[in-house]
Write a structure and sequence with these properties.
Blueprint (H helix, E strand, L loop, with lengths): L13 E5 L5 E6 L3 H13 L13 H10 L6 H21 L4 E5 L7 H8 L3 E6 L2 H14 L4 E7 L16 E5 L9 H15 L4 E7 L4 H7 L6 H16 L9 E8 L4 E8 L3 E5 L2 E5 L4 E8 L3 H9 L3 E8 L5 E8 L3
Parallel strand pairs: 2-5, 3-4, 3-6, 4-5, 6-7
Antiparallel strand pairs: 1-2, 7-14, 8-9, 9-12, 10-11, 13-14
Length: 339
């Protein structure tokens, strides 16, 4: 269970100073190489083997994900953006204008522009684990919103860290787009929502994107496109381990596998070994059998009632939910009732 302290921190982020664009400050709470090494070695030592999905998002991986969001099979991003465009003013009325807006997993910041225009917050705090991608996105936003104070924070939001905001937390609202909540096991998702509830306080609000349950074909096409961009995105995890942890994975001996696990209500992504092989990671040896898989991501899909039940366990009550006409995706406004 994650720390539920409102500060979300054990160590303050290190300020990196202003960026090239006016109004941008950068704060570094990025995990250390030792943290990465320990998590990777523990995951590869487990049965079945697994790696955390945060490894997707180095600079190249973030660029690949941006390409994924433009694929015809990947409905999530364009559908969520359409919902935000259609209902942004109503969302802003509920969240409250002129506040501090925190965004978890800001990525390329395409979705936030509509919300920022409607909310007109005093301070925007985008949080993302990909440092250079975050920097570029923050500076692009600063050019579009020249009077907005942007405190870009490079951090892994799945673990405790300190926000670079001064004073009390009154007037803070949170935005968690992209159905990234689905990448967490249900108990971990509840723990993260509990931490967000403690952060924004009783009466505070969270706007969160949630992918909805649907037919197997639509889901599996979204995570295994015909052009192979998603496969390259998955395999880039091994490239990153080769570069950062001195691993010796041969990418030609692995293949991307993605499928919908209907019993668990999630799309699973794996890297499958095509032959028996021995690899070294950070000096440690590992053996993979032919056909053995490394589990790299889950993407849980919810129905609206099921997500509301999950959020209720974290102290939230639903205020409003918006969906697209095909009911592919949903955006929820949740209010903290207890924390």
């Amino acid at each position: 269970m994650m720390n539920t302290e409102a500060t979300l921190a054990t160590t303050p982020p290190r300020a990196l100073g202003p960026g090239r664009a006016p109004g941008v400050r950068f704060f570094d709470a990025h995990p250390t190489p030792d943290d990465l090494r320990a998590e990777v070695l523990a995951g590869l030592s487990s049965t079945p083997k697994r790696l955390p999905p945060k490894l997707f998002y180095d600079a190249h991986g973030s660029q690949l994900f941006d390409a994924i969001t433009e694929l015809p099979e990947y409905y999530l991003t364009r559908t969520e953006i359409a919902i935000l465009c259609d209902h942004g003013e109503e969302m802003a009325d509920l969240l409250g204008r002129g506040r501090v807006l925190l965004e978890l997993g800001s990525g390329s910041s395409l979705k936030i522009r509509t919300l920022l225009a409607a909310l007109e917050p005093e301070v925007y705090v985008p949080i993302d684990i990909s440092r250079e991608h975050l920097r570029a996105s923050a500076e692009a936003l600063a050019e579009h919103f020249p009077t907005l104070a942007i405190h870009a924070t490079c951090a892994d939001y799945s673990v405790p860290f300190e926000l670079p905001t001064e004073g009390d937390r009154e007037g803070l609202a949170a935005f968690f787009p992209g159905s990234s909540i689905g990448n967490f096991e249900p108990e971990a998702a509840r723990a993260l929502l509990t931490r967000v509830a403690a952060l924004v306080g009783i009466g505070g609000r969270l706007l969160v994107g949630v992918d909805l349950q649907k037919d197997r074909t639509t889901l599996e096409r979204a995570y295994d496109d015909d052009q192979g961009v998603t496969a390259a995105f998955s395999l880039n995890v091994l490239t990153r381990l080769n570069r950062e942890l001195g691993a010796d994975f041969d990418l030609e001996q692995f293949v991307h596998r993605s499928f919908y696990n209907e019993a668990l209500g999630r799309v699973e992504t794996h890297l499958e070994a095509l032959c028996e092989q021995r690899v070294r990671v950070a000096g440690e040896p590992f053996v993979l059998a032919a056909g053995e898989r490394i589990h790299v991501e889950n993407s849980y899909k919810y129905d609206i009632a099921g997500f509301h039940q999950l959020a209720a366990g974290a102290g939230f009550v639903p205020e409003r939910v918006w969906t697209d006409p095909r009911r592919l995706f949903s955006v929820h406004c949740l209010r903290v009732e207890s924390c």
